[in-house]
Amino acid sequence: MRLLLAGGGTGGHLFPAVALAQLLLQQDKDAAVQFVGTKMGLEAKLLPKLDLPLATVGMAGVVGTGWRGKLEMLPRLLKSMLQAKKIINGFKPDLVIGVGGYSSVPVLLMAKLMGIPYVIHEQNAIPGLSNKLLGKWAKRIFLSFADSGKGFNAEKTMLTGNPLRSGLNDVNEKIDVGGTLLIFGGSRGAQAINKSVVEMLPLLKAWSDCPNILHQTGEAELEKVRQAYADAGFDPQQVVPFIDDMAAAYDQAKLIVCRAGATTLAELTACGRPAILIPFPYAAGDHQTANARTLEQVGAAKVLPQSELTASVLFELIKQMSGNTELLQSMADKGRSLGQPGAAEMILDECFRLCGAKG
């Protein structure tokens, strides 16, 4: 099967696509994959490291760009569709899969115009507008959350969960009492989380049982946060821009502070790791809060709204939870019960079936 994977921008969109591509190449020696994204997205940095091919289109998002950005969107979309046409003609995919992000829009629209079947993977509990519109012509819509199917034709949906990067299913089930406090805000970091953690550092320094910390900040705030750690008497090397080996990071963590993107939650439940979830409040449809509540309802996580996030509140939560090994293990076990292993295999099986039925 020749599979074209469209989308990206952030890890939440890109990592499931990477998992699908890597599994396909492992399963089928004659398979070929092609990613389509943008030069500005995470895919431009990550995919070359993984030896996965990337072609780019000039599409850009319009959220927060004002009226001028929206006016410029149409010509940009048309140009990107022409770029997508050239990529599709060159690669000749059997199937296109959209994994979200604005770069997927021109590719899926062009696939539709060229008569090439496409499928969509919707990671979030509340579907984005693009996927809702593009779902009308999709052959199949793969869901990470059952509730997100309300936005699509039920006959096309399939609950699969979220494809996971390799190694995440092998994380130790038992929480290490001496494990790390893992902090991250997604592949690009999260300014609000970084700010609160920096303000919390004096409290952590005065805490006799403070665990070792691994803090992913994103590139933009790396040096500022590292300097704050050094000023507070911490090793600044605990602060990194991006964690390549997330399986190892999860394995060593006993508690995690993070956003609530769908891919992050899929990883937390697969690994079985307790978390303090701070949903990004400006996500479309506030879907991160909806995502986070699914874990909180079963006792697998604590949700801390960003509107209530302060250094002292975050510190007290970390302190209360970190010292309660029984609670952490219980949360981990409850989270693992929500895990949906085999998502990538399920999606690829259906993609093969659709390709077989295509002709």
From TrEMBL:
Location of the protein in the cell: Cell membrane
Q: Name one GO cellular component term.
A: plasma membrane
What Pfam families would the database entry show? Answer: Glyco_tran_28_C, Glyco_transf_28
Q: Which InterPro entries match?
A: GlcNAc_MurG (IPR006009), Glyco_trans_28_C (IPR007235), GlycoTrans_28_N (IPR004276)
Q: What is this protein called?
A: UDP-N-acetylglucosamine--N-acetylmuramyl-(pentapeptide) pyrophosphoryl-undecaprenol N-acetylglucosamine transferase
Membrane-crossing segments per the record: none
Q: Which UniProt keywords apply?
A: Cell cycle, Cell division, Cell membrane, Cell shape, Cell wall biogenesis/degradation, Glycosyltransferase, Membrane, Peptidoglycan synthesis, Transferase
Name its species.
Answer: Malonomonas rubra DSM 5091
Bilayer topology reads:
Peripheral membrane protein
According to UniProt, this protein's pathway is:
Cell wall biogenesis; peptidoglycan biosynthesis
